[in-house]
UniProtKB/TrEMBL annotation:
<protein>
    <recommendedName>
        <fullName>Oxidoreductase</fullName>
    </recommendedName>
</protein>
<dbReference type="InterPro" id="IPR036291">
    <property type="entry name" value="NAD(P)-bd_dom_sf"/>
</dbReference>
<dbReference type="GO" id="GO:0016020">
    <property type="term" value="C:membrane"/>
</dbReference>
<dbReference type="Pfam" id="PF00106">
    <property type="entry name" value="adh_short"/>
</dbReference>
<comment type="similarity">
    <text>Belongs to the short-chain dehydrogenases/reductases (SDR) family.</text>
</comment>
<dbReference type="InterPro" id="IPR002347">
    <property type="entry name" value="SDR_fam"/>
</dbReference>
<dbReference type="InterPro" id="IPR020904">
    <property type="entry name" value="Sc_DH/Rdtase_CS"/>
</dbReference>
<keyword id="KW-0560">Oxidoreductase</keyword>
<dbReference type="GO" id="GO:0016491">
    <property type="term" value="F:oxidoreductase activity"/>
</dbReference>
Length: 239
């Protein structure tokens, strides 16, 4: 490990949904801490903006334009990373969509499926794809970005709440199944942020009503560096 200014020197990190918002903010902070960040997202222009921000803090990144709805692309990702890096020290599974809010009984079946595919099933495929790479690292960490709405039971949050609840369970299973390895798993609740997803869920809210994603990204980075609450076989519950 390098000095305190770059404590993640030599580490390889993968961040999904890294083209904007919280994912981009996390990618920049991990790069500033010394990690080489693999930034995955669908929007090439957004990835290039993240790359510019990473270079501005003296960091480095690999950009991976990919569509997480196309599971075959996720399946191939692990092999590509293995050829280039041989390991993965940190996974931040952040990519998400809100879908439609409203009564479950009247939900659109296509949108319901899309929300579950991106927020839950893509993360299952991601685990399958990079598990061997995480196990190849000395002290691997996997962080899944969730939402407390998944545990609230508040009406009308539809497939989004269901998918995030499933993600929480998926993370717990993964932690239990890797208990005898150095891998540690965490859930992170960023809280309200000024992001596109927030705007979709609360369209009448003032644009400056919530903080920028930077504060939540700072909290996650601090948690990772302190390893607060990480334990074998259990999921750290961070906010």
């Amino acid at each position: 490990m390098a000095g305190t200014n770059r404590p993640l020197e030599g580490r390889i990190a993968l961040v999904t949904g890294a083209s904007r918002g919280f994912g981009a903010a996390v990618a920049v902070r991990l790069a500033a801490a010394g990690a080489h960040v693999v930034c995955a997202a669908r929007t090439v222009g957004g990835l290039e903006q993240t790359d510019d921000a990473i270079k501005a803090v003296g960091g480095s990144a690999t950009l991976v334009p990919m569509d997480l709805f196309k599971f075959e692309q996720i399946d191939l990702l692990g092999g590509s990373l293995a050829q280039r890096f041989g390991k993965l020290d940190l996974l931040v599974a952040n990519a998400a969509m809100l879908g439609h809010l409203g009564p479950v009984a009247y939900s659109d079946q296509k949108v319901w499926g899309q929300v579950l595919d991106l927020n839950l099933n893509a993360n299952y495929r991601l685990i399958r794809s990079v598990d061997a790479l995480l196990r190849a690292a000395a002290a691997p960490r996997a962080v899944f970005v969730t939402d407390r709405i998944a545990r609230s039971g508040i009406a009308y949050w539809s497939a989004y709440a269901v998918a995030k609840a499933g993600l929480d369970t998926l993370a717990g299973l993964y932690a239990a199944e890797t208990a005898k390895t150095p891998l540690r798993v965490a859930l992170f609740h960023p809280g309200p942020m000024a992001t596109r997803l927030r705007e979709q869920g609360f369209p009448g809210e003032a644009a400056n009503a919530q903080p920028a994603p930077d504060a939540a990204a700072d909290r996650l980075t601090a948690r990772l560096l302190s390893e607060d609450g990480l334990a074998a076989g259990k999921v750290a519950d961070w906010d």
